[in-house]
Fold this sequence. Notes:
The protein is of the alpha/beta class. Helix content is about 45%, strand content about 10%. The chain has helices at about 10-20, 30-40, 90-95, 105-115, 160-180, 195-205, 225-235, 255-260, 270-280, 295, 300-310, 315-325, 330-340, 345-350, 355-365, 370-380, 385-395, 400-415, 425-430, 445-450, 460-465, 475, 480-490, 495-500, 500-510, 525-550, and strands spanning about 1-10, 50-60, 65-70, 80, 85-90, 130, 135-140, 145-150, 185-190, 215-220, 240-245, 285-290, 415-420. The strands form three sheets. Strands 1-2-3-7-8 form a five-stranded antiparallel β-sheet. It has a five-stranded parallel β-sheet with strand order 11-10-9-12-13, sandwiched between helices.
Amino acid sequence: MLFFNGEIYNFKELRIELENKGHVFYTDTDTEVVVHSYEEYGENCLNYFNGMFAFVIYDTKKKELFIARDRLGIKPLYYFNNGKTFIFASEMKAILEYSEIDREVDNDILDVYFSFRYCPTEQTILKNIFKLMPGHYLTYNSNGISIKQYWDLNFNPTNKPLDYYKKQFLKLFDESVKYKMISDVPVGALLSGGIDSSSIVAMMDKNTTDEFNTYTIGFKDDPNNEFNDARLISEKFSTKHHEYTIDSSYIKYLPKIVWHLDEPLADPTAIPNYVLAEKASKQVKVLINGDGADETFGGYEQYRLMSAMHKLPKFVRKSSAIITNVLPKEPFFLKAKNFFDSDEPESFLNISSVFSQEEKKLLLKNPLTNEPLKIIKRNFNKQKGLINKMLYNDIKTFLPDNMLTKYDKITMAKSVEGRVPFCDHNITEFSASLPEKYKINSMTDKYILRQSMKGILPNEIIKKKKQRFMVPTDTWFNQEFGEYSKNLFDANKELVDKYFKKNYLEKLNNSNKLLSGKLLNFNKLSKLYYSRQSWTITNFVLWHNIFIDGEVPK
């Protein structure tokens, strides 16, 4: 018996190998290949699969369940076990249909959530419900549960010429995109106009003679919209292009989005993702995007900033920390001071957290734990080299528990399958063999990707700086979002009072008036910073309403 969610992209090759070993097939599906692979190789079958998957096999001979999740965590898998009852599902809400489960928040994970705005731990935010971690498998039998890791990433840079790495990357990337295009239904792509999505569209064009759909979304009256760059790529590769614009009124979708995400995940881009999935579902059933490129090849600004800062002599960093004393005595600026004055894991926690430790003390009524820092230290200790430590941490946390969880659940909510070529494990393993200078070279991010795509993409796309896809929550706060949050908190006074301190909530509500000094105007930056904190709290209150109080949105 098999329960299977996902795709095995290399199933045709595996089928030929299995047929040569005497296996007889009755269908043309990858699902049957999973069963025969397990029969042939046992738990080692996982090492043969190239795909995104979460599956459960009941082994009638061993009388046990064999449960596995793909290497990068593209597909989710939850489970509950109280010694008597074992439940597994792709969604946490399905497990909650079991009436004997107590819907109780785990305060340790609550602390983690208010650092990272997502929950990157095996324990979910609900006590006694767990996630099977990426690259792991679980067996369940009369002796109970056993969990083992079958895949991990080990950064071991080699020393080859740049041309060697470019050829290797293009070969792997082309193969990955080709695999992701295998489908019996129409396939499209998200196209932001950045290097990641543009590279995917270029490879899709290389592997098909058919016109395919591309999709771009932006925000009303936002000068940072990337419509022009997306149009440039669409015209170059002759795609059927679609553009959409949203505004703060789309906050109306938030309750439904929170319901689909299962755990609180306060990434505002879930809203444009949801809108795009809904729009695209009218033309395609498979939607390819560029998630994973930043975490794999060093695309985020914190990598460059951290790397540059920790190359400075310690006395220079200490001096920088002292200089920050002239800034307003706000947690917002204390965070900057701690960033300069900390070791590697603490600096990364400071720069990665939506709430600093000081801010969480002012916000949360529950006592804090040291779990957020422990998570980063645990991951940093497994690798050498600061950039690789940061990349490894994000591949193990931010990528599966924010980016991939969001994209998979939001697309599946609209019956669209999201696929992510940069999350092919062969590409991830290739990145681990790269010298750091081919990820971040001086201040150039994703150096290997930019160099490899020369002559394939227009120069303006190659040279374009990383532009984060940012929802303008600071603008939205003065529109529907601010009023929405206020009304939500007013309607849930008992809940809000249980978890949060009043003074900090009032401060967030008045954040548009903060830090507007005469000499230095930090107003724009502070508004964005505090509006994202408000977004994080709002998402938690909504999540609590739905998953603890049972108020399922219509």
